[in-house]
Design a protein that fits this description.
Layout (H helix, E strand, L loop, with lengths): L1 E4 L5 E9 L2 E19 L4 E9 L8 E2 L2 E3 L8 E10 L5 E14 L6 E7 L7 E9 L4 H13 L4
Antiparallel strand pairs: 1-3, 2-3, 2-10, 3-4, 4-6, 5-7, 7-8, 8-9, 9-10
Length: 155
């Protein structure tokens, strides 16, 4: 039995990018989620579709499906984009995989936490402490949401 969610339409959240402990690092953005959340019985949730972060152009590229692993940090997922170059006829020339970071969500995308790989959008690097939380509109609301994720072991 599978329950599909958000199979059409999109949800756009106000979001805040920041580093915990550094209120001066706040940068407002938005996250738009459009796709299908698959919830199969006795399996991990998975998401197929698009997740666009307004401040990062690479997120307009094709996104690989995300599996939210119940046994890794209580629902961790990894999100990756494919950035491809095409010739004048539209045929693919090359494709680069851009590992963007880690993702957690509550229930059915009521909220989202992204832990970004730095340097952002370069495809290689490491996760430090740069986060995007949604829905959030300022440092205080983003930090409070981040703490809720941490209390659930999602960090």
């Amino acid at each position: 039995m599978e329950r599909a969610w958000l199979s059409c339409g999109a949800i756009t959240y106000p979001a805040v990018e920041f580093r915990p402990g550094d209120p001066s690092s706040v940068d407002d953005t938005t996250i738009t989620v459009k796709g299908t959340l698959h919830r199969k019985l006795f399996r991990n949730k998975s998401f197929t579709g698009e997740m666009e972060i307004a401040k990062y152009d690479v997120t307009k590229s094709r996104m690989f499906p995300v599996t939210f692993h119940n046994d890794i940090h209580n629902g961790w997922g990894s999100f990756t984009y494919m950035l491809g170059l095409r010739d004048a006829n539209g045929a693919p020339i090359t494709a680069n995989l851009i590992g963007f970071g880690s993702i957690w969500m509550t229930e059915e995308f009521e909220s989202v936490k992204l832990l970004l790989t730095e340097p952002v959008g370069k495809g290689e690097g490491q996760g430090k402490d740069l986060q995007i939380l949604a829905p959030a509109t300022d440092y205080v609301s983003a930090l409070a949401l981040s703490e809720q994720y941490k209390e659930r072991g999602q960090y």
